[in-house]
Design brief:
This protein has 242 residues and is mainly alpha-helical. It has one domain. Helix content is 59%, strand content 8%. The protein contains nine helices and five strands, in the order H-H-H-E-E-E-E-H-H-H-E-H-H-H. The strands form two sheets. It has a three-stranded antiparallel sheet, covered by helices on one side. Strand 1 and strand 2 form a beta hairpin. Helix 4 runs antiparallel to helix 6.
Length: 242
């Protein structure tokens, strides 16, 4: 029995690796079930490495502070303003809106489509284990890495498609983490993870089955998440202001 277990563990690991490889390298051959399994495997890997990576980022806080980052309360509002770089600030505050997501009149389907597109873009950039071995130089040459097009979609959601609701805060947060992750000055893997998780969760609720969906839910959205995971996400941005 012990021998069987010794062989079974590495065999199971090889199956998971092969499954992820097949989805990344040969997406046209992967079924939806394979993609879902690979995504879940990637998420398990994220969970296993997140704490270590966050510790490393915390240890490098002095270096990030030397880049001019700082944190302060924004006078006249409850938002905490985090200086990122140049004239760019991140704002941290919790939404108190009673509705998870609202759409402007006649814009629901267009908004849902764009949310799905953003999730697909992030999947292709950093999903299915890619974030673990990402090369930022190669990333910027990836056909899916188009910051202008990405920002245009975010602006459309913020200005034209979504009405006042908690989901607007999620689009803001997605924008912040995408910028933090892809900027030449930061190139932050964990920030890209959070960007992916935000749009992943939104897409599951908007275009999927929400809590009934078999895919993992990270709980980091203002619209549908939980306080613990949201606060942990915001703490990651706060580290840039210390």
């Amino acid at each position: 029995m012990k021998k069987i277990m010794l062989y079974a563990v590495p065999a199971g690991l090889l199956i998971v690796i092969a499954l992820i490889y097949s989805v990344v390298e040969f997406p046209q051959l992967a079924s939806s079930e394979d993609k879902e399994a690979a995504e879940n495997a990637e998420m398990e890997s994220d969970r296993a490495t997140e704490e270590n990576e966050m510790d490393n980022d915390n240890n490098s806080g002095d270096q990030k502070s030397s880049n001019g980052t700082s944190s302060e309360k924004n006078e006249g509002s409850g938002a905490e303003r985090i200086f990122f770089m140049s004239d760019t600030y991140f704002y941290i505050d919790r939404s108190e809106h009673k509705d998870a997501i609202n759409y402007k009149e006649g814009k629901k389907e267009e908004a849902k489509e764009i949310i799905g597109e953003l999730h697909e873009i992030m999947n292709n950039l950093v999903g299915f284990g890619k974030v673990e071995v990402i090369n930022f130089h190669s990333l910027r040459n990836d056909k899916y890495f188009d910051t202008d097009a990405f920002q245009d979609r975010l602006s459309a959601l913020q200005e034209d498609l979504l009405a006042e609701s908690r989901a607007l805060y999620d689009i803001r947060n997605l924008q912040n983490f995408y910028m933090m992750g892809s900027s030449y000055e930061t190139e932050d893997r964990m920030a890209l993870r959070y960007a992916h998780r935000i749009i992943h969760d939104l897409d599951i609720y908007v275009n999927g089955d929400g809590k009934k969906d078999e895919r993992r839910i990270w709980g980091v959205t203002e619209a549908y998440g939980n306080d613990s995971d949201i606060d942990k996400m915001y703490d990651y941005i706060r580290n840039y202001g210390e």
